Automatic annotation (TrEMBL):
Similarity section: Belongs to the Mrp/NBP35 ATP-binding proteins family.
Lineage of the organism: Bacteria, Pseudomonadati, Pseudomonadota, Alphaproteobacteria, Sphingomonadales
Protein name, as recorded: Iron-sulfur cluster carrier protein
Residues that, per the record, bind ATP: G50, K51, G52, G53, V54, G55, K56, S57
GO biological process: iron-sulfur cluster assembly
Species of provenance: Alteriqipengyuania halimionae
């Protein structure tokens, strides 16, 4: 009997009900019920921010790659319907996903991450001018695709708190959310609003990530903080939310992103910041 997807209590109740129903049947002396093995539930982590331009998509791509390097079967949903970028970050521009039985099949990237992005479904220079219901419907097709054996979905949300975010949170209910911000006060204010949206829907906050945290001059090696320093960690401590780590403002990360080769996919020392965040996400998933 297929009991895949049922929790332990539901499996036990099903087994008991079947035994009770058959126990009194004529000619039945003994009842044995064999249930299929429990299928591992796919986990979903949303990457959100209240403001554009804070590096959310870069974090999502590198976090997905870092988790794949740790042995996870990872999929990435580019939920930024109006401004998709993961097709560039994961070098799938020009590729089109296929479909089977009205379900999309993700693209397999060189980085070992399965990907679905609107950037692979429309022409590169075409503006997507859809109203909320159409955008929300497109999101549903990306999330409900044929993800196969994928065990972890990373969802790169658009900035802000609009229709797509509400659909993601209310209909698809991610298991947790990572909030990305740069150190300055304005970005932190918007990041806090994004966090409050998840809190209102009882979506746990995995933690805060501070991006563009410190710039190291490639010529002299001097460290400076053009956007400030420590703001995200201070806010995280103030509101009792885990702080997952900092990502530096580094030209190597930008160049790797433009080339479609996430820096977390190699052994570059600058990729270790993403791996450290992946390790904390791994621990959070294991605890849940």
């Amino acid at each position: 009997m297929d009991a895949g997807g049922l929790d332990a209590a539901a499996r036990e109740a099903l087994e008991s009900a079947v035994k009770s129903a058959l126990a009194g049947a004529e000619g039945v002396d003994e009842v044995h019920v064999a249930l299929t093995a429990d299928k591992q539930r796919r986990r979903m982590i949303a990457i959100g921010s209240g403001k554009g331009g804070v590096g959310k998509s870069t974090l999502a791509a590198n976090l997905a790659v870092a988790m794949a390097r740790r042995g996870r079967k990872v999929g990435l949903v580019d939920a930024d319907i109006y401004g998709p970028s993961q097709q560039r970050l994961l070098k799938t521009e020009g590729q089109k996903p296929t479909a089977s039985k009205e379900q999309l099949r993700p693209l397999q990237t060189e980085s070992g991450v399965a990907l679905l992005s609107m950037g692979n479904l429309v022409e590169q220079d075409r503006a997507i001018a859809w109203r909320g219901p159409m955008a929300s419907g497109a999101l549903g097709q990306l999330v409900d695709a044929d993800w196969g054996e994928t065990e972890l979905l990373i969802v790169d949300l658009p900035p802000g708190t609009g229709d797509v975010q509400l659909t993601m949170i209310q209909k698809h209910k991610p298991d947790g959310a990572v909030i990305v911000s740069t150190p300055q006060d304005l970005a932190l204010m918007d990041a806090t609003r994004a966090m409050n949206l998840f809190n209102a829907a009882d979506v746990p906050i995995v933690g805060f990530v501070e991006n563009m945290a410190g710039y190291i001059c490639p010529h002299c090696g001097e460290m400076s903080d053009p956007f400030g320093s420590g703001g995200a960690e201070a806010v995280a401590n103030q509101i009792d939310v885990p702080f997952l780590g900092r990502i530096p403002l580094d030209i190597a990360i930008r160049l790797a992103s433009d080339a479609g080769e996430p820096i977390a996919s190699g052994d570059d020392v600058r990729g270790r910041a993403f791996d450290a965040i992946a390790g904390r996400l791994e621990a959070w998933l294991a605890a849940g």
